[in-house]
Amino acid sequence: MDAVLLTHPWSVWTIIVPLAAAVLAFLVPRRAPLAGIITALSVALFVAATAYRIFLAGPHTQMLGGWQAPLGITLRADGPALIMLLTSGLVGLTVSLYATGYFTAADRQQRYFWPLWLLLWAACNALFLSGDLFNLYVTLELVTLSSIALAALNGSPAALDGAMRYLLAGLLGSLSYLLGVALIYGAYGTVDLTLLGQTVRADGLSRAALALMTAGLLLKTALFPLHFWLPPAHASAPPPVSALLSGLVVKAPLLILFRLWFEVFPDTATAGMAHLLGILGCGAIIWGSLMALRQQRLKLLVAYSTVAQIGYFFLLFPLARGEAAATAWVGVFLLVLAHGCSKASMFLVCGTITRLAGHDRLAGLAGAGGTLGARLLVFALAAVTLVGMPPSSGFIAKWLLINAAIVAGQWWYLATIALGTLLASGYVLRVLSLAFTESQSPPLPVAPRILRWPPLALSVVAVLLGLAAFHPAVLTLAGAPVSGIILLEMVP
Amino acid sequence: MSVPLIYTAAGIFLFLLGTYGLVAYAHLLRKILAANIMGSGVFMAFIAVAGRTPGAPDPVPHAMVLTGIVVTVAFTSVALALAVRIARTSSRVHLSGRDEEQ
């Protein structure tokens, strides 16, 4: 039993199953929700098996079809990939369950939601497992293409506009990345991440290629000030799609950035370049939070909160230099997991509220006690993780980041994390205060169970992950490009 | 100046030209065309890379360009479909301005 568990390439199935299900869902739309649920459950199982294998037997690689690089495709299941797969498994399972209740059989959107979402899922998992620059490009394009189609799903003018913006920004970003890949291939004759990590020289050409690829990926991750396309695309999509875009899709280019900076170009990137990304991250935290504070619509508020949270991930670049590297690395990856769960849950709650109230204008939701009050409670539970209150996973992640900032002696990042947390509690409380205002609004109907339980379950998981953060934290470092001890106490 | 270098430089020039077009023009069709010019620039750089060694050209960049062309075609068709839909639903051929969004 153990022999099979420890030698079978489980991670490959997380790509094959959604891909096959996407085709099935397209051909037989009537059975699409069933195919989606079966896929979601099996992907969760395969991710768990991959985690078990990495935990006991360490990271592993898999040559597809037995073909060697550069012609074949190498898939790598290591710690960072595993955390991404965990996020994708948790968010994907919850959103799939929610979507079976959100889209009805008569709905035209359901016909296209399932094939596109399952394709997106396969592409995301393939990206997380990819081991070379070109395969990362192809999978990133698959992710973007299916995301664009999903963002345009409801066909409203706002959604079409948001999707078009997303598409143009995505094209600019990916072509810039691809030009960087061309320069790298021209100089070193390979696109394999591991081989490049051993051969890359810290010269001008490498730096130019790194700058091109980074710029393209920043646009795709929507780091401030390149975030202009994110709020319209995320806020005008149907809620299950927004949950996927914010919870999962923005992390795909992020993982490529981490792989580039820490595996391929650890010596090429200068401290100045790392601090530039860190400062942009700080800008994202403050600007995104301020914009979230002044939004009038619930979904836009949550979308700007994503802009802010993306900023935290970029603190890894300046903080993961020196002795605090492992601490910052684990902190950021736990934050990816925590943010994925809490943000997806928040968007799903938004969807339920919009479905019940018929709109998502904050002013119109005042006095939302009663039926909506319970929804707002789930929102609050998800916000516990987002803001980073103990004992949630968001708390552990921010604690590690703060520790890393103190150990590295970079106090200004500490100040930004603190300020960002304060602003985050501000915009979350703005939503929660709605439940405590009095008004004579008529009582709303109760939402069906399938629209109530999945977001609650996901936010509970996000909080509880904080109590069981040890295993994910250790797994993050399996095969990671940084090593060292995880510093839990503040010692400047 | 060697031949691959000239092609790489020309590819980068096309890439920059396309970037300018993508950012500067408001008309969606022009933006889509500009993105295609960017793509051609990148592919030209790849092909130049294939010829950097003497003898038979390296086949791997060619395979990459073929894959890239497939991706670009897919993107272009989705972009055109979106542009047509935007033109039909809101009779615009450009993205909405910042003030219109509010």
Automatic annotation (TrEMBL), chain A:
One of its GO terms (molecular function) is NADH dehydrogenase (ubiquinone) activity. InterPro entries: CPA3_Na-H_Antiporter_D, NADH_UbQ_OxRdtase, ND/Mrp_TM. It comes from the Bacteria. It is a multi-pass membrane protein. Residues 130-422 form the NADH:quinone oxidoreductase/Mrp antiporter transmembrane domain. The chain crosses the membrane at residues 12-28, 35-55, 81-100, 112-130, 136-154, 166-188, 208-230, 242-262, 274-293, 300-320, 326-350, 362-390, 410-429, 450-467. One of its GO terms (cellular component) is plasma membrane. It is found in: Cell membrane; Membrane. Its main location: membrane. Keywords: Cell membrane, Membrane, Transmembrane, Transmembrane helix. GO terms for biological process: ATP synthesis coupled electron transport. PANTHER family: NA(+)_H(+) ANTIPORTER SUBUNIT D1, NADH DEHYDROGENASE. Belongs to the CPA3 antiporters (TC 2.A.63) subunit D family. This is Multisubunit sodium/proton antiporter, MrpD subunit (TC 2.A.63.1). It comes from Desulfofustis glycolicus DSM 9705.
UniProtKB/TrEMBL annotation, chain B:
The chain crosses the membrane at residues 6-25, 32-51, 63-84. It is a multi-pass membrane protein. Pfam families: Oxidored_q2. It is found in: Cell membrane. Keywords: Cell membrane, Membrane, Transmembrane, Transmembrane helix. GO terms for cellular component: plasma membrane. It comes from the Bacteria. InterPro entries: CPA3_antiporter_subunitC (IPR050601), NUOK/Mnh_C1-like (IPR039428). Its main location: membrane. Belongs to the CPA3 antiporters (TC 2.A.63) subunit C family. This is Multisubunit sodium/proton antiporter, MrpC subunit (TC 2.A.63.1). The lineage of its organism: Bacteria, Pseudomonadati, Thermodesulfobacteriota, Desulfobulbia, Desulfobulbales.
